[in-house]
Amino acid sequence: MSEIVIENLYKSFDTKDGKVEALKNVNLSIESGDIYGIIGMSGAGKSTLVRCINFLEVPTKGRVLINGKSLGDYTSRELRKQREDIGMIFQHFNLLMQKNVLENVCFPLYIQGKSKKDARKRAKELLDIVGLGDRTGAFPAQLSGGQKQRVAIARALASDPKILLCDEATSALDPQTTSSILALLKDINQRFNITIVIITHQMSVVREICSHVAIVKGGEVAEQGTVEDIFTHPKTAVARELLKNDVGDDGEEKRGTTAGGKEIIKSGEKIRIVFSENSAFEPVIANLILNFNEPVNILKADTKNVGGVAKGEMVLEFAPDCTKNKEMKQYLLDRGLEIEEVSEHVD
Ligand SMILES: Nc1ncnc2c1ncn2[C@@H]1O[C@H](COP(=O)(O)OP(=O)(O)OP(=O)(O)O)[C@@H](O)[C@H]1O
């Protein structure tokens, strides 16, 4: 049984301008111990979806089941109890600015009824876990963004949750700090077997730590699957768009390079090649050009670290007058590369 099941979920809001359908027939299953990404552009419905998972938003229709039990069937008291199993962190940390780091983490422990002594002991342990054991007396204003998010993570862990929801938790952070927070989340996931649901608009976040992902567009799930599958075989335009915006680990997307020593070629057949494992670094394209004595235009090339494995993609364009497209594609297939036709514009 999946730990989190979202069944035929709808959520609409009545506004003065009419009804907004934020979620439409969303179906998802998230397994225990998974790190699950929910990605989409702004306004896609991600925050509404994640808020439905702990019933901060009550769905208009459909069900959310945690370990087989529908949250809609709980009394408000049972729901409060269930929510202790679901921690949450946010983009803007939501810390108590007048309280120091230790007291911020103690706060939920006091609410649980812990004594001051016990709460402080536990809060200190949690701050050690997030690497802030030496900053207990600091106030939030004295901390960097990454440190504030670490405090928020420690606070979220105070109720020993089984699930941690992260709503754009790294969106306010620079790339290096983002990586360190993602590494911390992965560590927490593995050490404490906490299921993590990450809401983000950045594909780089998904590929760095998620094992599964759902792509949300216009309140609907456009595509879902393993991260590896979505990266290597994106089926929808929105998935391709999000991938296109994801800058590779080398920090640059290489576009518009001309291979083959000829002028940039316009509007020939375009194909997308997917590299995996070590093939990304082999001189396949150079050999292709030498073999067929035909130029190809490299419209885009990216290598990325997907869950620790080097992956890459390239979009190639054949010369408009090239007559060897078929053989050249076969050459690439024979070398174990996956190729697909690209119909949309590549910029
Ligand atoms: N409380 C609300 N009242 C009215 N409309 C809302 C409310 N919350 C969300 N919406 C609308 O629902 C849609 C989805 O919003 P949501 O915040 O879930 O998207 P999102 O993908 O998280 O976007 P972003 O990344 O910009 O935060 C939007 O059209 C938004 O305006």
TrEMBL record:
Under Gene Ontology molecular function, one entry of this record is: ATP hydrolysis activity
Identify this protein by name. Methionine ABC transporter ATP-binding protein
Q: Which InterPro entries match?
A: AAA+_ATPase, ABC_transporter-like_ATP-bd, ABC_transporter-like_CS, ACT-like_dom_sf, MetN_ABC, MetN_ABC_transporter-like, NIL_domain, P-loop_NTPase
Residue ranges constituting the ABC transporter domain according to the UniProt record? 4-243
CC terms in the record's Gene Ontology section: plasma membrane
The highest taxon in the source lineage is: Bacteria
Could you tell me which CDD domains the record lists for this protein? ABC_MetN_methionine_transporter
According to its UniProt entry, one GO biological process term is:
amino acid transport
- Identify the keywords attached in UniProt to this record, alphabetized: Amino-acid transport, ATP-binding, Cell membrane, Membrane, Nucleotide-binding, Translocase, Transport
State the Pfam families in the record.
Answer: ABC_tran, NIL
Q: Give the residue spans that cross the bilayer.
A: none
Q: Name the family.
A: Belongs to the ABC transporter superfamily.
